[in-house]
Amino acid sequence: MSNDIKRVGILTAGGDAPGLNAVIRGFGKTIIGHYGLELVGFLDGITGLVESRSRPLGPSDLSGILTDGGTMLGTSRDKVQKYLVDGQTHNMVSRVKQNLEQMGIDALVMLGGGGTAKNAKQLMDAGVNVIALPKTIDNDIACTDTSFGFATAMEIATEAIDRLHSTAHSHHRIILAELMGHRAGWLTLGAGIAGGADVILIPEIPFSVESIADTIRQRISRGSTFSVVAVAEGARDHEATLAYSAARALVQRAATPDEVTAAKAHLAAVENAQRSHTFRLANQLEQATNMESRVTILGYVQRGGTPCAEDRLLATRLGSAAADLVMQQQFGVLVAARGQGTEPVPLADVAGKVKLVPLDHDWLETARKVGTGLGD
Ligand code: F6P
After folding, report:
1. Whose CA is nearest to atom 13 of ligand 1?
2. d(C-alpha 187, C-alpha 193), whole Å
3. How far is the CA of 215 from the centre of ligand 1 (A)?
4. Would the pTM count as exceeding 0.70?
5. Is the pLDDT at 121 greater than 70, yes or no?
6. How many CB atoms lie under 10 A from the CB of residue 297?
7. Which domains does the chain carry?
8. Test site for ligand 1: of 71, 150, 180, most ligand atoms within 8 A of the Cβ
């Protein structure tokens, strides 16, 4: 056992996800109970790190939190290098480093998604001993098999799709269920297959309204006078996909700070204009099929509440593995889920990447084989 690491900080950043408290518990119990180190929790993610807002965490704080939703530490979407103060962004990396030194924090464990991995890498580059853990209901973090929160969100969304079936059936309607997932289709594809959605629309596959209407008409001709369509929040038709891809390319090409600001504003405007796409699609399908249609936005229900057993197990395994890595002084890594085990992956390989659904993924092939429409 190393003597160099005595006090460790932990924080939760980005959107919350079921399993955050389970990780805090798994990490905390191992680092305090098994290895005898001190633990400090930073409040509200990066904000707490910048403002030095924290609380000591002892064994009693870690008791009874395994099943709790949300995060006992609070969270925020603040960024360490672009920290917003009165509308201006500031680079807070040096300040955070100084805060950690003043507090005697020897290592920092950050629970979060892709954005948090980027923040963690920036702190790592500045010399902070940092370890990241993969949290998101979107399952879009690179280099890890999965992330905690995803299995629970998939359960919740699947149950919702199940329930929508009986009401769609009774009223002979099309019901469109919009699911989260940001730019990736994992959640919609997984829950769509598990819930037996008739059509699944994901960002990775641009859709055509006519193709979806065709699937619904074929169902009608076979006697199924209802359809359930699972729509990812990031799904787009061909035209919208072109506009969106062009806007993203503009951001990537922008060279000067002014160009970056203008390109980002344009991208945000394009994304905003596409926000109510599920309602638009419902109207288009109503016209194309002469069937009544309804929309259900599942929204934040997918992120709330207690984690399922699979996420509790994953969270505990990842948290405990992170404590082992702290003791081995293996920093600058994300603790990836790999098969039944875990694997440290360099943050440099993870930061700035997004794991989308590959077009040859087995789940897509399975969906097609069982006759699910993918809108293409
Ligand atoms: O990344 C998780 C997620 O729930 C996405 O699925 C969704 O697009 C986003 O967060 C919503 O973010 P916010 O909590 O900032 O509204």
Report:
1. 15
2. 10
3. 30
4. yes
5. yes
6. 16
7. 7-148+307-349 (3.40.50.450), 153-303+358-369 (3.40.50.460)
8. 180
